[in-house]
Amino acid sequence: MEKEKTVLNGPVYDARTLGTPKMLILGLQHMFAMFGATVLVPTLTGLDVSTTLLFAGLGTLLFHLITKGKVPAFLGSSFAFLAGYWAIAPNGEAELLPYACFAVAVSGLMYVILAAVIRSVGVKRVMRFFPPIVTGPIIISIGLILSSSAINNCTANPLVAVMAILVVVFCNMWGIGMVKIVPILIGVVASYMISMIVDPASRDAVLASVSQASWLGLPIHKEATVFGLLASDFDVGLLVTACFTIVPLAIATMMEHIGDICAISSTVNKDFLVDPGLHRTLMGDGLATTLAALFGAPANTTYGENTGVLALSKVYDPRVIRLAAVFAILMSFCPKFAALISAMPAATIGGVSLVLYGMISAVGVRNVVENKVDFTNTRNVIIAAMILVLSLGIANSAEGAVHIGSVSLSGLALASIVGILLNAILPGKDYEFEKESEGATSVNFEV
Description:
Oligomer: single chain
Number of strands: 6
Distance between the termini: 24 Å
Strand order of the largest sheet: 1-2
Strand content: under 5%
Number of helices: 20
Radius of gyration: 21 Å
Mean pLDDT: 81
Structural class: mainly alpha
Low-confidence stretches: 1-9, 435-447
Order of helices and strands: EEHHEHHHHHHHHHHHHEHHHHHEEH
Shape: globular
């Protein structure tokens, strides 16, 4: 049986003793967990699915290189820049998408600038603005905001979605050995097969899509890259407009990055804000985004789905994530596989995602509870309330975002900014990162 150590929230498996075959299966599980959302972004924007898979994998490996291989994060397609893509190429026009990609590449460099600032002034001065009363509700909001998309997918075929959920829960609660560690992978395969049985139309669509795709193909297309754009007579005005429209979105995505890293830290019980450091995670995410955008892929971001897998599997070894990245790279050269994944039933994605998104919110609740945040303190109640209401309220509004001039802020981004400002302005105990004892405004990732 796999070597494990017991902690407060259950056994944590030591991946070093799992062996190569089981590690490969775990890598596949992480790859399948990120597929639904990752391929959705190019589907919505007109970008190429295979290119997206390639740079999700390469971006993840680059992130791990910069973060010294310590952070078990997978970088998939970011939804935060959708409004930017649509503003420049509203109908996914192939000739306009490279302009948006150039602006996204510049946005990635904003991460590098912030990383340099943090490296210069120290993470303590930055993280004093991110105590658990701020990060906890942000993490909770991440899962709750994503949950609506999971519910929408589940309604496509409730039976398939319910089966996916039941398989995941059964494997996680009562599974033995490897079954307990890969419930998501088993849930995806089982519900996919059930969908093929109960929905002949879906089965026929999948078979047609896969049969028409080639076995091998190059995932990069020169005309879709920024380099192809710069080699031609491009529109300077449109390029500048794209930058002014899209680059400000980096403010929002950097706030979300901090929330994601806090979520991963809380899940794994290691403070990645200190080791390898927030400046390294920001730089890894930013450079991965720039690399992907230059070659015509969507912006990258740390993926909540994979954080949910970490929480379920209790295998936190970053090597498993790197295996998933390698699989994504290999699969990007196989259009037939991309077609198979793209045709995955929406209900399968919804059922699995519902569990994963719930796990993310649960991690946020745990962060608040374990740090003994005092909700009898009016200051803390106001901060948490504003973060939760703004993030969920705006996400569920007709617009789904707040527009300030040409800048579009998601509910989570605006809520994060408001929460940070309230924490800094409202009177109360000051917070000093890594120094204060556990209490209302302290951070403690140890379990």
